[in-house]
Design a protein that fits this description.
Elements lengths: L7 E6 L7 H17 L1 E6 L1 H8 L3 H18 L6 E5 L5 H10 L4 H5 L2 H9 L8 H4 L1 H10 L5 E3 L5 H18 L5 H11 L2 H17 L2 H12 L6 H12 L10 E3 L28 H9 L20 H9 L2 H12 L5 H28 L1 H29 L6
Parallel strand pairs: 1-2, 2-3, 4-5
Helix pairs in contact: 2-3, 3-17, 4-8, 4-18, 8-9, 10-13, 11-12, 12-13, 14-17, 15-17
Bound molecules: tryptophan and iron/sulfur cluster.
Iron/sulfur cluster binds next to α15, α16 and α17.
Length: 403
C-alpha cells in the first residue's frame, strides 16, 4: 500500500463488547461491500479500546477474538480484505509518538468527540492523556498505511479531518528540502511534454480557482507515471498544493448512507442503552426480545387502533420488510386489524433468517481457532510490512536515522 493509496480503504473497530445488529447494519455490511471494490484493511482497535477500558482490560481480551470471528461469520473475507490487530503493529504507536511532538494541544482539545464523550460517559474518568490523544492514535492508524479512504460514521468525520490537518502539517515541516521548486520543475519535465503540460494546467486550475477535481485528476496523473522516481512523485504531489514533498497523503472520509439500526426501544441500537440484539443471540432470546418490545402506547387493547410512526416495531419493518408487508402493517395497525404480536411475527422471522447462517459460520470458526489465528497472523504480517516502510521513511525525513 505505498505511494498510490487513493484506492486503499482502512477502518478499525474497538473491541469493547459483543457485536450486535447495529454493527451489522451500520458498519459491517458496508465493509463487506467495500471489500469487493477496494483493497481493504480492517483492524481491531484494541489500543483505542484501552482509552475507556484501561481499568477493565478483561473486556478487551475477551472481545478481540469474538469480534474477529463475528467479522468472518458475517462475510468479511480474508481473501479480499487484510485483517489485523492494532497492537500487533507497534509502528502505529511509534508514529503516534512522533506526531505527538508536533501536534498542537489546542487541535486535540477542540475536536468535538473529546468533550462529547466525556459528557456522555460520565461514569468513566476520561481526563487522561491517552483519551485526549485518541484522535491522534487514529491518525497514526490511517497515515501509517497512507490509506486514502476511511469509512466512518458521522461522529468520526472530525477525526479524519484532523488527520488531514496533521498530514498537511507533517509534510510542511518535514517534506521541505533545499531547491524544492527547482526539483519539482525538473520532475515535471521528466513526465514528458504532454503530461507536463496537463500537470501544469491542472495545478494552475487548483491553485488559482480551488478546483478540487483538477487536483484529484492531477494526483491520479502523477500516481500513474511509470518512469518517475518515488522521490519525484512526492515532489509532484506536494507541488500541487504547496512547497514541500507529500510524505503522508491526506485521507478522505468515506461517508456511506447506512440504514440506522433502531434498538428495541426505538433509540439507536447501542450497548450503552441495553437495547441490542447480539449477532450471537439465541433464536429463543430474539423471539423473546421482540415479543416484549414496546409498541404504540395507544394500543392498550387489541381493538385500539395504533400509529406505526409511534412504534419502534415499525422501524424494524422498515429495515426488514417488503413493500407489501409494510402496507399490511400500516393499514392493519391503524384499523386495529391485527394485534401487535401478529405484527411482530415477520420481524422475528426476518431476524432469525438473517442470524441463522451467521450463527452456523460462527460455530464453525469457534471450532477452528487455529485457522482464525492464521488469518490474523497473515494479515498482521502484511500490514506490518507496509507500516515498517512508512516508518523508515518518516524516521528518515525527521532526521532520526543515525548511521
Ligand atoms: N475511532 C473509531 C471508532 O470508534 C475506531 C478507529 C480506530 C478507526 N482507528 C481507526 C476508524 C482508524 C477508522 C480509521 O469507530
Ligand atoms: Fe406497532 Fe405493529 Fe402494534 Fe402497530 S400493530 S403498534 S406497528 S407493533
Amino acid at each position: 500500500m505505498n505511494s498510490s493509496n487513493s484506492q486503499h480503504v482502512l477502518s478499525g473497530m474497538r473491541p469493547t463488547g459483543k457485536l450486535h445488529l447495529g454493527h451489522l447494519h451500520g458498519v459491517l455490511n458496508n465493509w463487506i461491500k467495500l471489500q469487493h471494490e477496494y483493497s481493504c484493511y480492517f483492524f481491531v482497535a484494541d489500543w483505542h479500546a484501552l482509552t475507556t477500558e484501561y481499568d477493565n482490560t478483561g473486556v478487551i481480551s475477551q472481545s478481540v477474538w469474538e469480534m474477529i470471528i463475528d467479522w468472518l461469520a458475517v462475510g468479511i473475507n480474508p481473501g479480499e480484505a487484510t485483517l489485523f490487530i492494532q497492537s500487533k503493529i507497534p509502528e502505529h504507536a511509534e508514529l503516534h509518538l512522533l506526531m505527538s511532538m508536533s501536534t498542537p494541544l489546542s487541535w486535540l482539545e477542540r475536536i468535538p468527540t473529546y468533550k462529547d464523550q466525556q459528557q456522555k460517559l460520565r461514569n468513566k474518568d476520561l481526563s487522561t492523556y491517552g483519551f485526549l490523544g485518541y484522535p491522534l492514535l487514529q491518525s497514526a492508524d490511517i497515515l501509517v498505511y497512507k490509506a486514502g479512504l476511511i469509512p466512518v460514521g458521522e461522529d468520526q468525520v472530525s477525526h479524519v479531518e484532523f488527520t488531514r490537518e496533521l498530514a498537511r502539517r507533517f509534510n510542511h515541516i518535514y517534506g521541505r528540502e533545499a531547491n524544492f521548486e527547482d526539483k519539482a520543475r525538473d520532475a515535471i519535465r521528466k513526465m514528458g511534454k504532454k503530461n507536463a503540460k496537463l500537470y501544469k494546467e491542472l495545478r494552475k486550475n487548483f491553485q488559482e480557482q480551488g478546483d478540487v477535481e483538477a487536483l484529484n485528476t492531477a494526483q491520479a496523473l502523477v500516481e500513474t507515471q511509470q518512469n518517475i522516481s518515488l522521490g519525484d512523485k512526492k515532489r509532484l504531489l506536494g507541488y500541487l498544493e504547496g512547497e514541500s514533498k507529500t510524505i503522508l497523503p491526506e485521507p478522505e472520509a468515506l461517508l456511506t448512507k447506512t440504514s440506522k439500526m433502531p434498538g428495541l426501544d426505538g433509540q439507536k441500537m447501542s450497548k450503552s442503552y441495553q437495547n441490542t440484539i447480539s449477532l450471537r443471540e439465541s433464536p429463543a432470546s430474539v423471539e423473546q426480545k421482540i415479543r416484549t418490545m414496546q409498541t404504540d402506547p395507544a394500543r392498550i387493547r387489541r381493538t385500539d387502533p395504533g400509529d406505526p410512526k409511534k412504534c419502534p416495531v415499525w422501524q424494524f419493518h422498515q429495515i426488514y420488510s417488503t413493500v407489501e408487508q409494510k402496507t399490511w402493517v400500516k393499514e392493519n395497525c391503524r384499523s386495529a386489524g391485527i394485534g401487535c404480536i401478529e405484527c411482530k411475527q415477520p420481524v422475528i422471522e426476518s431476524i432469525l433468517a438473517e442470524l441463522a447462517p451467521i450463527r452456523e459460520r460462527t460455530l464453525n470458526f469457534i471450532e477452528e481457532p487455529e485457522s482464525v489465528r492464521a488469518i490474523i497472523n497473515e494479515g498482521c504480517e502484511k500490514a506490518r510490512d507496509t507500516a515498517r516502510e512508512t516508518l523508515e521513511e518518516v524516521r528518515q525525513v525527521m532526521g532520526l536515522v543515525y548511521r
